[in-house]
Structures are given as C-alpha cells and as structure tokens.
Amino acid sequence: MTLTPDQTAEIDAARAAESRTLRPVSPGMEARLYTAHPVLDHGFVRVIDYMGDDSAIVQAARVSYGRGTKKVSDDAGLIAYLMRHWHSTPFEMCEVKFHVKLPIFVARQWIRHRTANVNEISARYSILDREFYIPAPENLAAQSASNRQGRGEALEGDEAQRVLDWLRDDATRAYDHYEAMLGQEGQQGLARELARMNLPANVYTQWYWKCDLHNLFHFLRLRADPHAQFEIRVYAEAMAEITADWVPLAYAAFEDYRMGGAQLSAKGVKVLKRRLRGEVVSQEDSGMSKGEWREFEGVWG
Hints:
The active site is at 223 (involved in ionization of n3 of dump, leading to its activation). The chain has two domains: 5-133 and 202-259, Gyrase A, domain 2, CATH 3.30.1360; 266-300, no CATH class. It has 301 residues and is an alpha+beta fold. The mean pLDDT is 90. 46% of the residues lie in helices and 14% in strands. Helix 3 (54-62) packs across helix 4 (72-84), helix 4 (72-84) runs parallel beside helix 10 (248-259) and helix 9 packs across helix 10. The chain contains twelve helices and seven strands.
C-alpha cells in the first residue's frame, strides 16, 4: 500500500479530531474510522463514514424508541430471525462509506454491483499515479480447464517470470507514453480525457463507495466467496473484517445463514427427504442436471 505524506497527515488529523454526538455509535467501527487497510500491492480500503449499528436494525424491525429494555440476546435472536427469513429492510437502515484504491480491472468487475453510490476519481481532471497492480508470483495461474472464468494451476519458473516481466514492462511503457502525451513545458500536449485511454487496466483508480448493510452483505456473499476472483476477494475480505467489528450481531447472523449456510432447490429438498428415509438416490432419478447434482453432492455428500 502506498500513501502520500499528505494522505497520511490527513488520516492522522481525522483520527485525532473528536466530535460529540447524540446518535448511537459502534465502538468497533469507531476504532476503524479513516484508517487505511492495505490490499494488494498498492491498494487499500478505509471507512470514511457510517450510520447505524446493530441497535438500528433492531429498532427498525420493532419501530420503537431508543434501545429499549431488551437484552443483547433478544437483539441477537431478532437479527438472526430477520436474516433467516430474508427480511432485508431493517438491514438497510445501516450505511457505510468506503474509500477504496483498486486496479481499474477490479473496479470494472466491482461496479456490476449497482446498489451502491459511487464517485470515482476522474482522469479527465486528474493525472493518475504511476502505480500498477503486479500479481505476486503465487497468484499467477493458467486458465482453468473446467471453469471458463476461473484459474487453474499456478505458473512456475521461467513462464511465470516471463509473464511478470511483460506485465511490468507493458504497464511502465504505457504510462510513460501517457505522461509524454500530456501537456508539458514547451509542448501543448494531448487532453487528459484522451491521453487516459492509453492506460492499462492494472493502473490504480480510487473511489468512494457508499452502500447500505443489506446490499453490502450481498456484495460480500458473492465476492468474499472462495470462488470469487482473488483480486476482488481480498478487498471483500478486508471489508468483511470491518463489517464484523461494525455490526457484530448482524455479521454473525450473516456468517451463519449466508456464508456458512446452504440453499436447496425444491428438487434438492425432495432428494434429501428421500435419503433420510433410507433411499439411495442417483443423479439420474433425482431430476437434477449433472451440474446441479455435482453442487448438491458438494454440500450434502
């Protein structure tokens, strides 16, 4: 992770300033505020602001005043019930705003989650930094033979080094040309909005990403999953750790029912009931496709 002296000073100043408030705050999130958590080689995630905590979810579900006289165990039970039965609205009462520095190709995958408010740095007005994502050697892999959008075995030796050299050289050359095209002393130069098209997809960009808790959980369920692409998964994992400190009761329910749970189709329910009655069920008489059956067996054996 790379922070400029100005950015470090800004973070230190923000963390040193304290404001009194009447609204409920999350101690876990207060400890996280403004701090930049490193991701990949030059990226980071940090919380800029947030609204609500576990009590806000409970309050919205009960439509009550204040925290009331309920015990923490009662709140945990209610939040688990809401998660279990897919009652999403109370979770929308909590919001968080992240500042994220990430490679452009990760941002283009991330932006598919259209349930957030996003403001990205504009290369029409700003000159992007000379920072590129270069994978660690252990994260270089061939195309998977069984998954069209996944990775297979890791590259090794000379082949891995050749790929790393190309990635670094190509990114450096493209940025050199980007810089040279911009207006310099004694040269009119190309407009920034045109020069930026020469930048590679592994150049870092930055954005503010604001999302409610319900949609953040949806993002984490997909992107913190072991099957997600590594480069976006590490961001999701960092955000998951922050979220666990922010709303511990809600995150525990999310881990239990979404990340650690399993969803069954109607056919899957029938097969499971038949198995519990002692029947031997095969894919051919299950009504499932081969892909569905493979996924079913992956969870239920």
